[in-house]
Design a protein that fits this description.
CATH class: Alpha Beta
Shape: globular
Bound molecules: 3-methylbut-3-enyl trihydrogen diphosphate, magnesium ion
Distance between the termini: 16 Å
Structural class: alpha/beta
Oligomer: single chain
Strand order of the largest sheet: 3-4-2-1-5-6
Number of helices: 9
CATH topology: Undecaprenyl pyrophosphate synthetase
Radius of gyration: 19 Å
Length: 251
């Protein structure tokens, strides 16, 4: 296959639910929270693979709005790991032209972590390579609700009428306005659910589930997901014939 053909078939925006860290650790007789540092290693590998394959956008689900329900000890450990990983990885990310952005409700994070996030975002803001979005304290319902709230405020302020709110306006108030929606969604760890990840933005995303646990997910696993993705026919409501006709016309 020519490189050009390969590139066109890769997703522009990849979203991943990185699940299975706890089970990975337990399988090894370790406490479940020991799986999270191993998960960070897998993140490094997948980010590097995406950089090399020139994937434009990668959105990773790192911590959900509901993950606060976990034992305090595990939550603390995850927060600490988030802080340490940001510090440790940011220079390498910057060297690789990665632009980092954290999506989610950051108000719940410690002032130190919030500052660390802001610094990392500022340092990498002009980079032109992979846009790496880390969803932390993120929930799809939170995202839609905060958009609704901001829209209501704008209507109240007289900047907008209720009648002007359409899907385009709504999208502009969600967490990453102006970006293409995910083409491919991957969930590791065997569960087949969305767990309140990108609800609005995944309306037409191709879903891919694998039993591999997140710390085991590597470049080869990513390539297998991409290969599966190339076999999908994305119809967006049209018929298969229409889509094929369009492809024939375009080529
Ligand atoms: C995903 O792995 C990481 C986070 C939710 C932070 P889990 O910790 O959910 O791993 P399992 O699902 O219990 O194996
Ligand atoms: C989803 O995983 C959230 C992240 C990977 C950050 P969970 O392990 O929290 O999902 P559920 O609870 O099994 O649905
Ligand atoms: Mg899980």
């Amino acid at each position: 296959m020519e490189p050009d053909t390969v590139d066109r078939r890769l997703p522009r925006h990849l979203a991943i639910i990185m699940d299975g860290n706890g089970r990975w650790a337990k399988k090894r007789g370790l406490p479940r929270y020991a799986g999270h540092p191993a998960g960070v290693e897998a993140v490094r590998g997948v980010v590097e693979a995406c950089v090399e394959m020139r994937i434009p956008i990668l959105t990773l689900f790192a911590f959900s709005s509901e993950n606060w329900r976990r034992p305090q000890k595990e939550v603390n450990l995850i927060m600490d790991l988030f802080m340490r990983s940001l510090k440790k990885e940011i220079r390498r990310l910057d060297r690789n032209q990665v632009r980092l952005r954290v999506i989610g409700d950051r108000d719940a994070f410690s002032a130190r972590l919030q500052k660390q996030i802001e610094e990392a975002e500022r340092l990498t803001q002009n980079n032109v390579g992979l846009l790496l979005q880390v969803a932390a304290n993120y929930g799809g319902r939170w995202d839609i609700t905060q958009a609704a709230k901001r829209l209501a405020e704008r209507v109240q302020a007289g900047e907008l009428t209720a009648g002007q709110i359409d899907e385009g306006v709504m999208s502009k108030h969600l967490s990453f306005p102006g970006l293409p929606e995910p083409d491919l969604f991957i969930r590791t760890g065997g569960e087949k659910r969305i767990s309140n990840f990108l609800l609005w933005q995944c309306a037409y995303t191709e879903l891919y589930f694998t039993d591999q646990l997140w710390p085991d997910f590597n470049r080869q696993a990513l390539e297998a997901a991409f290969l599966d993705f190339t076999r999908r026919q994305r119809r967006f409501g049209r018929t298969g014939e229409q889509v094929q006709g369009k492809t024939a016309e375009a080529s």
